Branched-chain amino acid ABC transporter substrate-binding protein (Yanghanlia caeni), 373 residues
Amino acid sequence: MKAKFTPLAGALTLAAGMLMSAGAHAETIKIAIAGPFTGAVTQYGAMVKEGVDTAVEMINASGGVLGKQLETVVMDDGCEPKQGPVVANRVVNDGIHYVVGHVCSGATIAATNIYEAEGVVMVSPSATAPAVTDGKNYHMIFRTIGRDDQQGPAAAQFIINTIKPQAVAVLHDKQSYGQGIAAAVRDELEKAGVKVSMFEGINAGDSDYSAVITKIRSSGADFVYYGGYHPEMGLLLRQAAEQGLNAKFMGPEGVGNPDINAIAGAAVDGMLVTLPADFTQDPANAEIVKAFTDKNRDPGGAFQLTAFAATKAIAEGIKGAGADDPAKVADWLHANTVSTPIGEISWNDQGDLKNFRFDVFTWKQDGTKEVYK
């Protein structure tokens, strides 16, 4: 028998569905994972997701937060600034109060105004550009990673004191993250009297950087710093080797991706990279490291443990506030310290970490890395 659909039946069905949806929503606390899950740097989104998933699984296994389980919702911004607000509006419209992300600085900067205005707590485990927080007077925006003006000077001091080059070519990808950190390195080098023989942007996504490599050689640089992501760094390394450029290359955490090996080949061997300290070596993190490895996840990438820390901060903030209330959670985070696998972390008034440690690593042809010795 075919059921007859009436306006009244439809209204009752809709009302019942809304009640069930509201009940289901009340059973969990949702955390959006915002980052690139399509595009050229999907690996960074995957790193962050591994960190969040592992934290959520451990927190849920221990009883959840305020008697509720955490639930993740993946949202893709493709690492594109224009998609940052699109994702942020989806988060707001879906009634989600907490975000781990965004991953790329450009997309993060584009989304933060919406989160701040709509009362959503956002904790980025990877966006390092100072412009994410500088001069914004935000209350809802946090990070669990250091800034470019911490990472850049750390890289520059290493170049000055350890490498001691004759001249440095500083390149960047013309984007918020890459150009910002490259400028920080340049400024620190020049302040120390190190010759910066060129400061130039390249176009992300290009396939031929032979012209810029020729310029590096002509500039007399024996060291190259590149601010940007791994696809372009991989091509620069490979094409520099093909053209016989004898210069050491260095980059920020954005180049520290195992996929660079497939792009650069043997030329990647010896690349220098600044990354968050290897917190997997801390004996206090043994249980967390095991939780990653039990799921065939790598805890030693650039952002897995900073993403775990971001998730832990949100969970502790909710517990500390005593309610699933993002405004109260933000208040609590600003006033307290959280124990995480990246250490005891606390934030200044604008949501930046008071302290964060970057180390210099040597990248190897087999995809492994080790602290520079």
